[in-house]
Amino acid sequence: MAASITSRLLTELLPPDLAASVRQHLLDPRAPFQIYTQALASQLQGLLSSLSPYVQPMVDRALAAMVDNQGATGLVVLLVLMTAVVVVMNWIRRLVMWWTRLVMQGVFWAGVVLALAWVWNRGVLESVRDAVVLASKVLGYLAVLKDFWMEEYERYEANGSGSGSGSGSGFGAARGRSSGR
């Protein structure tokens, strides 16, 4: 039954020539892959059977100790579980950081290529003139934005110091005295 499911999946997911190649070189019992897999499985089974007399007493003692000390066992299991969670979360963090770094490098190099294409198409002088115009518009917008935020900050400071606690020992009063203006 497993062979028929594998055969069906191969024919549905892969092109016919690739499916035939996989059947011939990987799934055929006379294929080198199957021969090496069976040899490795028999080697591992022999290794496990030869180690069993040495490992079995240690496993029995560990199981007996866990049954006798259930509180300590629960604590050990909790610590192992927490360690596993931290390790997996660290892997996830590293994977996210890798992808983020990759995307940011791609965006940076795309910007460099875009700037070079812009200079190539427009010419050096036209590109510099366009860059100066763009920079002046951005700086003008930032100046208006700064003025707006400063007005809002001054209005907030005026409202914050006017509605203090009355005793002058509150957070607002201390902030008003240390504004540095």
UniProtKB/TrEMBL annotation:
Region annotation Disordered: where it falls in the sequence: 158-181
The entry's keywords: Membrane, Transmembrane, Transmembrane helix
Stretches with biased composition (Gly residues): 161-173
Annotated TM spans: 71-92, 98-120
The keyword Calcium appears for this protein: no
Pfam families: Apq12
Highest taxon listed in the record's lineage: Eukaryota
Protein name, per record: Nuclear pore assembly and biogenesis-domain-containing protein
